[in-house]
């Protein structure tokens, strides 16, 4: 796929992304999502526009929730959600925080940290006690984005019992940022 | 001594910069026993530039220059064998070769480039090279200097100046993680904290440590930012403990631009991973905030940039040695500004690793640890560069390392 051929110029790859969006072929979604790994604004913008044309966030949530999709595609779909930043992402992402797969729960929490949905606060507070340390780490991040005194109290409560050094670090950072100056 | 016939192409200048011999004696290395015959600039009445010396610096076997750049030039061969020296004022192909060797060694000639004219800029660059090589900064190209320059141009393995980095027993490091609209930086911060923890680093709660506590750890309290997040561990350097102190700066740090800027000014090792923002500098800004990016130079194209005044121009960079690695898209665009703006920095006290093209997010954390691990293990920069290039399928520039004098000690 030319889109993800790093030997091609960004200009060429932007044109490919635009063409894939215009063609309306949903099988191109994974390739487009992989292209988001490149740290380039122009390619990023072209891919976001193409994803919008191919069904936008609704299509991506459908993929992320579909257990028959490969895990890599489901995770990529949540990367796409982070790029599209839909305003009504709180509900679907909160739902994914209860998915059986810890990778999806972690990516949902990360997406909430990026998008910042206040309506997911309750689900994120529960996620602070998730068995997966990755979920707990990103839940702490996302609670800062959600904000509020309940978030700070929940983070402090988790700090008291957390044993993982990396999650402790995230909780400590979250508490600092949530504490009123 | 065989006759010396330097092959110099001398082009008279309309306004020669050099002083006529009658007014100012030429600064040449003279033979104690024979009169010095002058070559080069005397053809246009200026200060002689290449002068023979009667007592070769190297007795016995002739010195052969080995680098492809310098080895075929008879004038430089004469100089290498102590039969002549080259001074300011000369012009020609031999000068151009020396200028190219200086540039390759990390001593840029930003104003005139390799113009085949041994002027003030070339002399100043040569003096800096001599100082970094432990030679007298005479500005004269003599046998020792050309041999060191040849070694720099020949050397296949280059190292950071580890002796300088570890001299005070602390490897002061700043790792900056640049802001990303999609939150890739949030994931990367987690990976870096995990990587540090796996490597035995521990969080250092500087906000609650007294000055005495920090001193017990071998740290100077004056260099510690109480608002910053640090991780530390000790590692072995030739039987002595060195404390690695890592300041981790990201979008959520307190005043990240200042924290990173302090690192740029003072840290021995600076690592940045994130968006390069088209050459404008490391970025900690979500564009709606006032966090800003650390402005190194003007952007090469339009994109997400919140430019303010140039931070590099305001920076008070340490005179000490620093190594910087910029992991982002085409960060080689930073190099020209880093070489031109700080007046007290050149290849003798600043080495830079930068990318030649776009890089992905997915390799960023591994790139950071290639550099941190590489420095703590005193790897060559070529090893680090090779790892970075393989992982990213992209070229990297290692700028300034050729002039370095550090070599691993034999076991």
Average per-residue pLDDT of chain B, rounded, comes to 84
Q: How many helical elements of chain B?
A: 12
Overall residue-averaged pLDDT value of chain A: 94
Q: What is the N-to-C order of secondary-structure elements of chain B (H for helix, E for strand)?
A: EHEHHHHEHEHEEHEHEHEHHE
Output the CATH topology of the largest domain in chain A: Leucine-rich Repeat Variant
Helix content of chain A: over 70%
Rg of chain A computed from alpha carbons, rounded to a whole number of angstroms: 18 Å
- The parts of chain A where pLDDT drops under 50 for at least 5 residues are none
Please name the CATH architecture of the largest domain in chain A.
Alpha Horseshoe
Total strands of chain B = 10
Helix proportion range of chain B: 25-40%
By CATH reckoning, the class of the largest domain in chain A would read: Mainly Alpha
Describe the protein's architecture and organization.
The complex is a heterodimer of chains A (about 180) and B (about 400). Chain A is mostly helical. Chain A has 2 domains: about 90 residues, no CATH class; about 90 residues, Leucine-rich Repeat Variant, CATH 1.25.10. Helix content of chain A is about 70%, strand content about 0%. Chain A is elongated. Chain B is of the alpha/beta class. Chain B has 2 domains: about 110 residues, PGBD-like superfamily/PGBD (Muramoyl-pentapeptide Carboxypeptidase, domain 1, Orthogonal Bundle); about 240 residues, no CATH class. Chain B is globular and about 65 Å long. Helices cover about 30% and strands about 15% of the residues of chain B. In chain B, strand 5 and strand 6 form a beta hairpin. At the A-B interface, helix 3, helix 5, helix 7, helix 9 and helix 11 of A face helix 6 of B.
């Amino acid at each position: 796929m030319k889109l993800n051929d790093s030997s091609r110029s960004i200009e060429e790859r932007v044109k490919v992304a635009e063409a894939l969006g215009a063609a309306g072929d949903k099988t191109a979604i994974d390739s487009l999502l992989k292209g988001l790994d490149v740290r380039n604004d122009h390619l990023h913008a072209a891919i976001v526009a193409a994803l919008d044309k191919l069904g936008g966030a609704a299509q991506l949530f459908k993929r992320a929730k579909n257990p028959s999709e490969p895990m890599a595609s489901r995770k990529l779909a949540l990367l796409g959600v982070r790029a599209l930043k839909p305003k009504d992402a709180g509900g679907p992402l909160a739902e994914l925080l209860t998915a059986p797969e810890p990778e999806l729960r972690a990516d949902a929490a990360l997406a909430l940290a990026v998008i910042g949905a206040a309506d997911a606060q309750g689900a994120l507070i529960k996620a602070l006690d998730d068995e997966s340390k990755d979920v707990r780490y990103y839940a702490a991040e996302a609670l800062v984005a959600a904000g509020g005194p309940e978030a700070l109290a929940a983070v402090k409560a988790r700090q008291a019992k957390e044993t993982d050094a990396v999650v402790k670090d995230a909780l400590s950072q979250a508490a600092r940022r949530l504490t009123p100056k | 001594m065989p006759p010396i016939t330097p092959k110099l192409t001398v082009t008279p200048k309309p306004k020669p910069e050099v002083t006529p011999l009658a007014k100012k004696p030429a600064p040449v290395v003279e033979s104690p026993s024979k009169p010095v015959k002058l070559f080069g600039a005397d053809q246009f009445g200026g200060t002689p530039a290449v002068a023979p010396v009667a007592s070769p610096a190297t007795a016995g076997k002739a010195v052969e220059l080995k680098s492809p750049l310098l080895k075929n030039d008879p004038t430089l061969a004469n100089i290498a064998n102590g039969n002549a020296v080259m001074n300011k004022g000369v012009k020609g192909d031999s000068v151009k070769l020396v200028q190219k060797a200086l540039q390759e060694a990390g001593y840029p000639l930003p104003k005139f480039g390799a113009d085949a004219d041994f002027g003030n800029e070339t002399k100043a660059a040569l003096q800096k090279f001599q100082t970094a090589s432990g030679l007298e900064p005479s500005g004269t190209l003599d046998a020792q200097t050309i041999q060191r320059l040849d070694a720099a141009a020949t050397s296949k393995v280059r190292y950071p100046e580890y002796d300088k980095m570890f001299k005070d027993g602390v490897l002061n490091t700043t790792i900056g993680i640049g802001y990303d609209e999609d939150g890739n930086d949030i994931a990367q911060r987690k990976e870096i904290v995990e990587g540090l923890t796996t490597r035995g680093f521990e969080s250092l709660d500087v906000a609650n440590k007294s000055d005495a506590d920090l001193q017990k750890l071998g740290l100077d309290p004056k260099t510690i930012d109480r608002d910053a997040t640090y991780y530390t561990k000790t590692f072995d350097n030739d039987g002595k403990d060195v404390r690695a102190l890592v300041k981790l700066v990201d979008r959520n740090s307190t005043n990240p631009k200042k924290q990173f800027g302090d690192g740029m000014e003072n840290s021995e090792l600076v690592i940045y991973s994130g968006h390069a923002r088209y050459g404008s500098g490391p970025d900690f800004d979500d564009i709606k905030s006032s966090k800003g990016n650390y402005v190194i130079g003007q952007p090469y194209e339009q994109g997400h940039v919140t430019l303010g005044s140039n931070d590099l121009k305001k920076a008070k960079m340490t005179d000490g040695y620093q190594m910087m690695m910029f992991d982002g898209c085409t960060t080689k665009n930073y190099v020209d500004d880093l070489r031109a703006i700080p007046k007290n920095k050149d290849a003798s006290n600043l080495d830079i690793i930068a990318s030649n093209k776009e890089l992905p997010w997915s390799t960023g954390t591994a790139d950071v640890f290639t550099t941190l691990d590489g420095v703590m293990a005193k790897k060559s920069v070529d090893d680090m560069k090779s790892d970075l290039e393989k992982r990213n399928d992209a070229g990297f520039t290692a700028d300034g390392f050729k002039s370095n004098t550090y070599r691993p000690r034999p076991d």
